[in-house]
Structures are given as structure tokens and as C-alpha cells.
Design a protein that fits this description.
279 residues, alpha/beta, 4-stranded mixed sheet, 6 strands, globular
Length: 279
């Protein structure tokens, strides 16, 4: 969760089928465009349904999907949060401020409202909240007032329109990098809000222990401090209550070599926990 391009899935499948083992992998992804592509890629690599099955769901639906499949839980869960490279690189999805496309940002374009419509109907207070929670934006109140007024006067419906407006607003920040960082943070905050990502993550974390077998392990990759805070708090609470036997406070981060080879990995943090076993 989430299946994405299938890279993690293919590596997991190598491990769980090594030496003729009978492990099986479930891949979750709510994206109706990318999920079939990833599944086709995995099938082409030689993994039939007896080894791999996918489902159209986000991570919050994991327990329900496991129940529907008749699985009594998972031995290992890997959650890779946020947006995938394929979504970023497809201008029709509206995830990138560097590519011209509709201001959409939905993981599932068949559900909910596009970011442009969300912006046109959002209140100043709600937008300020989204900018604080989803972007750690220090000027959230000032920026929210300006964005709501700008959207009311002349609605921005393209990614490059919003990016240009944000750069103009950020002119006082002094550098192009500072302006680009603001644009990146705002797009991230809008994506999180449009897809209700924090609510889905909180639901998943609450239901996660019931989806893990005794002794089962979970690893979570986050890319933003808001996500990481939710995961850290849930694991700490689970450790305190005895649901988890292990949940280290230390996070794993990408090495300098990995960051050079994959710059998008730079903000990643990995936390893990192990489900307790009955006494």
C-alpha cells in the first residue's frame, strides 16, 4: 500500500517466492489508471494470481480487503505514502507544478472534486488549516486570504496558472528556490486536502493491528512531517498499550547515494513496528 509503479511489489515477490516458498502479495491502489499498468507489469514478470493479487482500495481499506479475500491477516505490510512518480510525471493528473495540466491532484480522478473546484469553494479558514497541516506553511493565514481572493476574482484551473500566481505572491521571498519551495509545499497541501489523506492514514493506523498476524511487521514510508507525526504517535501508543512488541523511535532515511540516484527519495522517513504475540 500503495502499489504505485510496482517496484516495491516486485522486490517483495522475489523474496516471498524464493526457493519455492508459497508467499502471496496483496497490492492496494485506489488509482484506476496506474493500478492496471502496475498489475500488467507484475504479471509480465511471471507472477500469477496465486502469488500476487491487487485491489482498488487505499490503505484505509486494507482490513476490509483482507476480509473479502478470506485472509486472516498479513505477516508483513509495507505502506508507501504520498504520490507516485508516474502520477507526478503525467501532466493530465495535475500533480506537478512544472507541467501544464488541469489543476486536479486526485489519486482517483473518478471520485471527489478536483483541486481547482476545491479551491473555488474552500473557506479562508479551511485553506489556512490545509496549508498549516499539509505544508507546515509559516504564512498560512496571509497566503490563504490572498489565494481565496485570487480564486474568487479569476479562478485558476491550470497547474501553471497556480504556480505562476504563487511565484508572484512569493516575490518577497527573494530567491527562485524559495519561491519554488513554496509552490511545492502548496501543491502538496492541496493534494493532501483533496484526497483527505490524513483521515485515510489515521483510519489505516487505527485498523492496522487487526490486519497484522501475531508477530507481523509493518514498515511505513512517509514524505512529510504531518504523515510522520501520525505514524510516530500511533506506533508509540501501540507500544504503550502492548499492541506492538517493538516500535523504535529512530527513523531510517535514504543514504546520500540513494538521494543522488533518486532525488525524490530525499524527504523519505521509514518507521517500523512489530505486532505483539499472545503470551
Amino acid at each position: 500500500a500503495t502499489l504505485g509503479h510496482g517496484g516495491h511489489a516486485l522486490e517483495l515477490l522475489k523474496a516471498i517466492t524464493a526457493g519455492g516458498a508459497s508467499g502471496r502479495l496483496l497490492g492496494l491502489d485506489v488509482d484506476p489508471i496506474e493500478r492496471p499498468r502496475a498489475e500488467a507489469r507484475i504479471r509480465a514478470a511471471g507472477h500469477p494470481e496465486s502469488q500476487f493479487v491487487s485491489a482498488g482500495s487505499n490503505h484505509a481499506g486494507m482490513a476490509a480487503v483482507l476480509a473479502r479475500l478470506g485472509w486472516d491477516g498479513a505477516d508483513v505490510v509495507l505502506a508507501d505514502l504520498g504520490v507516485s512518480s508516474m502520477q507526478i510525471d503525467d501532466p493530465t493528473r495535475g500533480f506537478s507544478f512544472k507541467l501544464d495540466g488541469p489543476l486536479d491532484l486526485r489519486m482517483n480522478p473518478n471520485r471527489g472534486v478536483a483541486a481547482a473546484d476545491w479551491l473555488s469553494g474552500v473557506t479562508e479558514r479551511r485553506l489556512e488549516q490545509a496549508l498549516r497541516e499539509g505544508a507546515d506553511e509559516p504564512r498560512a493565514g496571509e497566503l490563504a486570504r490572498a489565494m481565496v481572493a485570487a480564486q474568487a476574482a479569476r479562478p485558476m484551473r491550470r497547474t501553471v496558472e497556480l504556480a505562476a500566481w504563487l511565484r508572484a505572491w512569493a516575490g518577497h521571498l527573494g530567491t527562485r528556490d524559495a519561491a519554488d519551495n513554496l509552490v511545492r509545499r502548496v501543491f502538496q497541501a492541496l493534494r493532501i486536502a483533496v484526497n483527505d489523506e490524513y483521515s485515510s492514514l489515521a483510519t489505516w493506523l487505527r485498523l492496522l493491528p487487526s490486519a497484522l498476524r501475531p508477530g507481523g511487521r509493518v514498515a511505513v514510508l512517509t514524505f512529510h512531517s504531518g504523515e510522520d507525526r501520525l505514524v510516530k504517535h500511533a506506533f508509540r501508543e501501540g507500544l504503550r498499550s502492548g499492541v506492538y512488541a517493538e516500535a523504535p523511535d529512530e527513523v531510517l532515511r535514504p543514504s546520500a547515494e540513494e538521494r543522488r540516484g533518486n532525488p525524490r527519495s530525499a524527504p523519505a522517513k521509514l518507521r517500523w513496528a512489530r505486532r505483539s504475540t499472545p503470551a
